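Backbone-to-sequence.
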């Protein structure tokens, strides 16, 4: 799975996607916990934070 981070920074929130899940994790703790969201929930979240 490919993890993406804006501008390849080492101190960010990383994102990875699968067809069923959007995952986020802390780039400083790549083996730590991950949060998973459905694509619909992720789009709803992004819509609300960009208003």
């Amino acid at each position: 799975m490919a993890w993406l981070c804006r501008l390849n920074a080492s101190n960010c929130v990383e994102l990875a996607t699968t067809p069923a899940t959007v995952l986020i994790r802390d780039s400083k703790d790549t083996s730590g916990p991950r949060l998973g969201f459905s694509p619909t929930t992720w789009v709803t979240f992004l819509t609300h934070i960009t208003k």
